[in-house]
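Archive maintenance. Older records in this collection stored only the sequence; we are now back-filling the structure field for every entry so that each record is complete. The fields below show one back-filled record exactly as it appears after the update. Entries are processed alphabetically, and asparaginase is next in the queue.

ARCHIVE ENTRY
Title: asparaginase
Organism field: Selenomonas caprae
Length field: 330
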Amino acid sequence: MNVKKIYVLATGGTIAGSAESDTATTGYQAGAIGIETLLAAVPEIRKIAEVSGEQIAAIDSKDMTQAVQLKLARRCNELLAFEGVDGIVITHGTDTMEETAYLLSLLACTDKPIVLTGAMRPATAISADGPLNLLDAVRVAVSDEARDQGVLVVTNNQIDGAHDVTKSHTTSVQTFQSPNGGSLGSVDDGVVRFTRRSSYTHLAASLQLSENVQVLPDVRILYGYAGDDGLLVEAAVAAGAEGLIYAGMGNGSLPEKVEAKLAAAAAKGIVVVRSTRGYAGNVTTAEASYDAAHILYSQGLNPQKARILLQLALLQTKEPAAIQAWFDKY
Ligand SMILES: NC(=O)C[C@H](N)C(=O)O
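Back-filled structure field:
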């Protein structure tokens, strides 16, 4: 059997975190440990794959930027175009892992596995979760079943798809969940099992980002609350936002005053999408007045992912119906 070749791209995060004491699970420096050290801590990886490591960034993922995410997307496509590269594992902080995973899932031009992993406890902790997560991520990346599943997130023996996965807990190692449909599978004592296939598609090759796109359109997220009067809608419009995601109540419901301000923004050509501050479920068409104002709905995307999809859509079109079709599809 040929040993598969996996590239590990490191970006930092708690998986590469270093704390003063081995009992500390907060107050550590994320991204302090390099990829070669992380790989050396898990010699079993070299038994299942031929692995090369590359450091893309060394940051706490709360500071992840779209510049780094676009660099990652381009590097993944570059590497996976080689026949000799069978898959990619990306080490990443958990805070924004879902955003990077989703952006990559839209931009990756491959059916080879791209697997993100991270950790909730720093590498120096007594019970660090990073080493097993990294090993499991490589196990998934070499698995034939992982092909054509989009971008995956592997942590705590669980496999999740980029479209649905979200960080649900502030500190627990069991933080990643897929509230709409559940996880895709598990890694049980080293055995990779997919119980469901991801049904989501990445963008067609024709929609790939051209090399000269370095900055994505300005899309802001506004978070709804009882009594919201829409002040921040006006602030975002005045600041030049090209798109707005409103994290509404329940099925993306908009408080009256907010609706009026969002409708005014949409009338000016700013693309407005309702998402939800709720944890699970699709945001669907709801009130006729939303449709009349061309306020769109995010389907199963949470606000942070809806923002990414709208940014990519805005590179192609500003037409609300065309953009709604993106949300219906991706
Ligand atoms: N557990 C973690 O990885 C959290 C860290 N702040 C990060 O996202 O980089």
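Update note: The domain at 4-194 is CATH 3.40.50.1170 (Rossmann fold). The chain has a mean pLDDT of 94.
Entry marked complete.
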